[in-house]
Amino acid sequence: MDQVSSQILAGVVAKMEKTVQHLADQLRTIRTGRAAPALLEGVRVECYGSMMPLNQVANISVPE
């Protein structure tokens, strides 16, 4: 392959890896029969006058 093809291939591979990671993150938030701490990852709360992710303000756990 020439240099241009290698650069294009590298860019496409990076975008595909990013897309797969995003899909995996989204699949973790799907509600199933069991509670999961990942369900609260997108929740932001006001703390000391600024918005912060809930997991930085509180401990989140799921009993077995």
How would the blueprint of this fold be written?
Layout: H1 3-28, E1 44-47, E2 50-53, H2 54-57
Antiparallel strand pairs: 1-2
Task: Explain this structure.
The protein is an alpha+beta fold and about 60 residues long. Helices cover about 45% and strands about 10% of the residues. It is built from two helices and two strands, in the order H-E-E-H. The protein has helices at about 5-30, 55, and strands spanning about 45, 50-55. Strands 1-2 form a two-stranded antiparallel ribbon. The radius of gyration is 19 Å and the shape is elongated. The chain starts with a helix and ends in a 7-residue tail after the last helix. The model has no long low-confidence stretch (mean pLDDT about 85).
In summary, what is this structure?
The protein has two helices and two strands; from the N terminus they run αββα.
Summary tags:
47% helix, 64 residues, two-stranded antiparallel ribbon, elongated, alpha+beta
Q: What is the overall pLDDT average? A: 87
Q: What amount of the residues lies in strands?
A: 5-15%
Order of helical and strand elements = HEEH
Number of helices: 2
- Quaternary arrangement of the chains shown? single chain
Strand order of the largest sheet: 1-2
Principal-axes geometry comes out as elongated
Distance between the termini: 53 Å
Sequence stretches where pLDDT stays below 50 over 5 or more residues: none
